[in-house]
Specification:
single chain; 319 residues; mainly alpha; 13 helices; CNOT11; cytoplasm; transcription; CCR4-NOT transcription complex subunit 11
């Protein structure tokens, strides 16, 4: 006849379970076991473990310890979740090597913190900073001096068209110096296209104005920049920003006209419509008067030439 389960068998199971749990991590040991204790013996009911013998207990323990369905491992416990740390955005830190584009990675020499800074390193550092922040007057002068010494223009390769808008906004003086050197290369069209497409601002107009007075820029670029600037002023909804940009564009156009950088006849319709649209602004009215004055001067010159020709021709035929 089978021997009923007694306290000794139950203690044996507990000891086995405790011994096995010692090998598990603390997170597993702190979980709630998914083994439900036997129901207590109620009046009128037989004990639930009445028919379990020593062999049955041994089989139960072996089954509990078997893998992969170990009840001790499948305990009910909380899920420990950790949030992934944010990436450190720092250009001075190490980056993952991308073997697909080896040209992106360049060797760096003399990188010890106690080493003397070389001119190349100073130039590269200042260029990297110029894309992120406005440089001091002293740093700008140092950077300009180093650019003049860099006769091979080896460091201009890091000034990509994508970085040019930030350079113009933070350091327009440096942008002018670099663009003056890039004008001699075959990649200048990509940089000029970026200037045309970038957001209209005081610094961008300053850069274009300085370039137009220093070198001969492509005519189609200057005309396209003017047309886009006029169109931008018409699309701005904020009245304060609109008036501010209109004043800047008017002063910019007056400078181009007075310095005879653009041919007004080629853009006369666009500039005249711009002045009429914003005639309430003083600078626009002044630009409109300048246009009319130029028109009168050209008409007077043409009329004088025509009169002189007619007089000369009439003198040869006398009644």
């Amino acid at each position: 006849m089978p021997t009923p389960v007694g306290p000794a068998e139950i203690a044996f199971v507990k000891a086995k379970a405790a011994e096995r749990l010692k090998d598990f991590p603390l997170t597993v040991r702190s979980n709630v076991a998914n083994i439900i204790p036997a129901l207590p013996v109620l009046p009128g009911r037989e004990p639930a473990l009445k028919n379990y013998t020593g062999a049955a207990i041994e089989e139960l323990v072996n089954g509990m310890m078997a893998n992969p369905s170990n009840p001790l491992l499948n305990a009910l416990g909380p899920t420990f979740m950790s949030v992934a740390p944010p990436l450190l955005t720092c250009e001075d830190e190490l980056i993952w090597l991308d073997l697909g584009s080896p040209s992106y990675h360049k060797p760096v020499y003399n990188s010890c913190s106690d080493a003397e800074p070389t001119p190349d390193k100073c130039l590269q550092t200042l260029l990297d900073q110029s894309f992120r922040q406005a440089l001091s007057i002293a740093d700008q002068q140092t950077l300009v001096n180093e650019l003049e010494k860099d006769t091979q223009q080896t460091h201009l390769s890091c000034v990509t068209p994508e970085k040019l808008p930030n350079l113009i906004e933070y350091n327009p003086t440096i942008a002018i110096e670099i663009l003056m050197r890039l004008l001699k290369t075959r990649h200048i069209d990509a940089y000029l296209d970026v200037i045309v497409d970038m957001e209209l601002s005081l610094h961008s107009m300053e850069v274009v104005n300085r370039l137009t007075t220093s070198v001969d820029l492509p005519v189609h670029f200057v005309h396209l920049y003017i047309v886009n600037s006029i169109g931008t002023c018409s699309t701005i909804r904020d009245k304060y920003m609109q008036n501010r940009l209109v004043r800047l564009v008017c002063v910019f156009l007056q400078s181009l006209i007075r310095n005879k950088i653009i041919d007004v006849k080629q853009l006369y319709i666009e500039i005249e419509a711009f002045c009429i649209e914003f005639s309430r602004i003083r600078e626009a009215a002044a630009l409109y008067r300048l246009l009319k004055q130029l028109e009168l001067d050209q008409g007077s010159t043409a009329g004088t030439s025509g009169t002189a020709s007619a007089t000369s021709g009439g003198g040869g035929v006398q009644p």
